[in-house]
Amino acid sequence: MSFQVYYAAGKFYCRSITRTELAELKPKVENCFKAAAGATGCEVKLTWAPYGAIDDVFQNEALAHRFIDYMKQVGSPFLPRSEEEKMVSGSTDFGNISWEVPSIHPGFDIGTVAANHTKEFAKQAATMKAHHCVIRAAMCLSRTAANVFLDDELYENAVANFKNGKHH
What we know:
This protein is mostly helical.
């Protein structure tokens, strides 16, 4: 009688819209791999990335409103919040930071409808129009950050929003 030994390895990513949904998804994924191993008479060893999950971005409402106000003052268009929330966004480790301190990770228009990380987006990002849009957004973001130190009410609202929102 001869036996053949096979070995397979792979890397897989689990992604979800929120950290809560990811926590619910993780054991389901583990069970799928365990069931496949059991059905085929194999063993499975699962190892999650040592750096942990990449959390969703927890946008601070108070800071976001201030940033949007500044962007509108300089003529940058913004969609209503309900429309922005429908947009698909990628993951970023900034999400982890946003669950530790009040934060915003705003997007802004550079004059294209192309998705990030595409050739079309890269082409538009290299234009002077996009450069001016980035400078304008950076100035508004800087003003927002300075206001956290200069405006006690903004600071208190940002902290309160952060504490209240973490219970979601």
